[in-house]
Amino acid sequence: MTAVDPVSASSGGASIHSVDNTLGTPKQTMDADLFMKLLVTQLQNQDPSSPMDTNQMISQTTQLSMMQSLATLNSTNTDSFALSMRTNAATLIGQQVSYIDKNGVTATGKATSVSFSGSIPTVTVGGVDVSLDSISAINLAN
To answer: What is the model's pTM?
Structure first.
């Protein structure tokens, strides 16, 4: 008797084990393509005397739709947060700001420019590049 691994078993030449073609390694997340392959394989291999419950199939399709919507929402939130950080950093130009330097000492200076090259904007304060998340105060009195 030969044991069959259900994860890598294939039917009709269509493997249900998903592989990321760019790296040749198995995917760690379930995407829409993998879900559809699993659903088709499930339908092809169902017992004709006991077909798959249509309510279960609709439920699975709904779950896929919800997963895709959540992924889109997450991406939108990430983009919105990045835009908010850039906007906030740009408003600091010309302002007196305080920040914590590398030695843990609070320093103050005028913000003269902003760089968006990294994931967190960098503000130039008194000639020193300071990460936006290191700025601790905005001093409105110039």
So the answer is: 0.53
